[in-house]
Specification:
This protein is elongated. It has 10 helices and 15 strands. Strand 10, helix 8 and strand 11 form a beta-alpha-beta unit.
């Protein structure tokens, strides 16, 4: 039997990051943690829901289910949605938006599902008080998530609001910027502890460097957010959330370097703006130079590289770039564990080193290989 004031929640993430998210939730006090497909379910109180939003680096959203049932058709979908007492969660003058994910032979259109759930909510309010909530997809008072898998329906309140990857520090974008949640997950998969050097010799908009600095200095990712979805809920406890957001103790100084390089002037300017906005200028050092000329700090450490995959570069040019990356690693990265992510398998072969670990991740729709290379001076012995 579930303890009083405890309830079940679901944290969504990217495929391949479920394990690191489960560990993260355990560390902040979640109970009954279960790994799902691109999600993790867990039990906790309102306090934990706030903490999961504020402290989690690898969750995209924290959902609080309000109904779970089985349905076979649109009538049952409508009736299930209408069975929830929506006046517990919003008022007739409020706005809503509904995100739906559907994997079912009975439903093949997520927009249709969202529309049916919206109709049920609107009809309930219209019948009860003659007024109805309206739809606002940009800045709603209440964001709902509908998930249908075969005949299983779950309707949830989205306590995060806008996706948690939108930290708030990134004001400048490079070409194909790395999602912040994916970047944090990539770092956690390396098992870097934040006590050795961290470098990115092709930093783009600086996301990997910023996420690494936030981890090393124990700065919660939620510190930059203007708001979370739960702050608009009727039962929002502002005092509790203030206590949670003020209890963080940032590490003031560490004996490590977080550094990066990029040959692009535009990337350097974008990353500089983002680092300034994240208030990390004293913790991250970047230079405008090529991967061939980048010399990582002495003492070894961790490196992650997210090179171009080939969307804008011809394959022969990409192969040459990856060969240069491999040569640079052999020449300059003694004592570093280097992880490289790419969706271009042909180019990855040109690194010229044998990976010690091979993982699969998804950067948007692209299936990527995430390989670890252990760089030693001379013999491994």
């Amino acid at each position: 039997m579930m303890e009083k004031n405890k309830f079940r929640m679901v944290a969504k993430t990217f495929r391949g990051l479920e394990g690191v998210l489960a560990k993260e939730l355990n560390e902040i006090g979640a109970k009954d943690v279960v790994v799902l497909n691109r999600a993790v379910s867990f039990t906790g109180s309102k306090d934990l829901m706030y903490r999961a939003n504020y402290y989690s680096r690898t969750a995209l959203s924290i959902l609080k289910p309000v109904i779970r049932t089985r349905i076979k058709n649109e009538v049952q979908l409508y009736n299930a949605a209408r069975s929830v007492n929506w006046q517990d969660h919003l008022e007739s003058r409020d706005t809503i938006t509904i995100d739906s994910t559907v994997s079912s032979v009975n439903f093949n259109n997520s927009m249709f599902v969202s529309q049916k759930v919206k109709d049920a909510i609107v009809d309930q309010f219209r019948d009860a008080c003659g007024r109805r909530p309206s739809v606002n997809n940009e800045n709603p008072v209440l964001r709902l998530n509908v998930h249908i898998s075969n005949e299983d329906l779950t309707i949830s309140l989205d306590s995060s609001g806008a996706s948690l990857h939108r930290r708030g520090y990134r004001i400048a974008h490079g070409q194909a910027p790395l999602n912040e949640v994916l970047a944090a997950g990539m770092i956690k998969l390396t098992e870097w502890k934040g006590n050795t050097n961290f470098v990115d010799p092709m930093f783009g908009s600086g996301t990997l460097l910023i996420e690494a600095a936030l981890m090393a200095y124990h700065i919660p990712p939620g510190i930059f957010r203007k708001s979370f979805g739960f702050e608009r809920w009727p039962d929002f406890d502002s005092q509790l959330f203030n206590e949670i957001s003020e209890e963080n103790e940032e590490k003031k100084s560490l004996r490590l370097s977080i550094a990066g390089g990029d040959t692009s002037k535009k990337a350097f300017e974008s990353a500089s703006r983002n680092i300034i906005n994240a208030m990390l200028t004293k913790k991250i050092t970047i230079k405008q130079l090529s991967v061939d000329d980048f010399i990582p700090p002495e003492g070894g450490g961790m490196a992650i590289i997210n090179p171009p995959y080939g969307e804008r570069i011809k394959q022969n040019e990409l192969n040459a770039l990856y060969m240069r990356i491999g040569d640079a690693l052999k020449k300059h990265f003694d004592g570093y564990d280097v992880w490289i992510i790419s969706s271009n398998k042909e180019a990855m072969k040109r690194i010229g080193l044998r990976p010690s670990t091979r993982l699969t991740l998804y950067n948007g729709p692209l299936e990527c290989k995430y390989h670890k290379y252990e760089i030693y001076r001379g013999s491994r012995k």
